[in-house]
Amino acid sequence: MIMRFYNLKLFKKVLPLLFSLLFVISVLSAATANAAGNLTIYTNYPGITAQPGSNLSFPLTISGPLGYVNLKVVSLPAGWSGQFFGNGMEIHEVIIPSNDTAQAEFRVQVPQNAKDGTYNIKVEAANNKSRDYLMLNIKIKAGASGGDKLEVQYPSLSGPDTATYSFRATLYNNSGHGRFYSLGATAPEGWQVTFKPAYQQNQITSLSLEGGKTQDLDVDVQPPDGVKAGKYSITIAAVSGNEAVKTDLEVVITGTYKLNLTTPSGRLNADTIAGRKGAVTLQIENKGSADLNNISFSAQAPDNWSVTFEPDTIDRLASGEKRQVTAFITPYAKAIAGDYAVNITASTKETTASADIRVTVHTSTLWGIVGVVLVIGVIAWVVWTFNKYGRR
After folding, report:
1. Model confidence over 77-101: pLDDT tens digits?
2. Between β-strands 269-273 and 352-362, what pairing exists: parallel, antiparallel or unpaired?
3. Per-domain residue ranges of the chain
4. Is the domain covering 40-140 a CATH 2.40.128.130 domain?
5. Cβ 282 vs Cβ 307: under 8 Å
């Protein structure tokens, strides 16, 4: 009886040890089973904060048994895009060597209009025996740091249409690996945009940049000839794969002011008669890039001459526009026949233009007839006098 009681006490002491041993064996068996057949997909930083429009990159590690593993996006917020990449190429499958791991990259494009908040993405790794899921948590916050960036120190410049505008930009590769970027721009028609490494003269269209590094760029913007005054927007971009970082530039053309005054034929001469009004057609052209307002006309002419204009002012002359004006020139009635200079000027508060008109003055034909009559009369009188008194 005593012996049976002792065995019962011994059994109660050994029983917890047996349960512990069985638990350890089951854990080891599960771990062995996982190592033999289960997949695992993970990333070191599954929860990040980014700003709207960011391009995000998640390095992935897939572990499991030897064989092919299919990669798939299970869920993605509306308007977002996500793709798997390997060695710079878009992929959908990896292979795991025996007792090893495979690497991939999951890239996410956040839309520019994404609202502040928290968003979840679910991706899957699967083979013919098992599958695993990875949940990514992205918090969108305006002004958050991270992601590739293209920044410009002074994004708005102003000046005349003849200037070349130089912007200093900095490209940030905030990923963990090197990237190849293509450089480009969207500009108004006729505008030229070129890229150069900072402090260098060689123009480039692409560059390679190591992970975590930056590159300063000089972006030169050349307006076309005769561009009108106003504000112009240019967007520059650095594209890597299917990701792009962009920034906007602004050029404010203050305008150039230039008038040209001539005649429609280009001949700067006129014929008129002393004391009579003569008309000269002038052509005025706005050859600047800015519109001109309140153009008035004036003239410098010999004494006792009169010069008037029709119209005498032009309220507005658009860039590139031509207009005709008539100058009425009246020489002095007693002007001697010959050539005279009349200087005509068109003026605005911004600029002036002038033209020298050579005016050839003729005396009136009436006075010529009177002169001829007088001469004939004098000759007749001389002849009559000679005939009458010369024979005596």
Report:
1. 999 999 999 987 999 999 998 778 9
2. parallel
3. 40-140, 149-253, 260-366
4. no
5. no
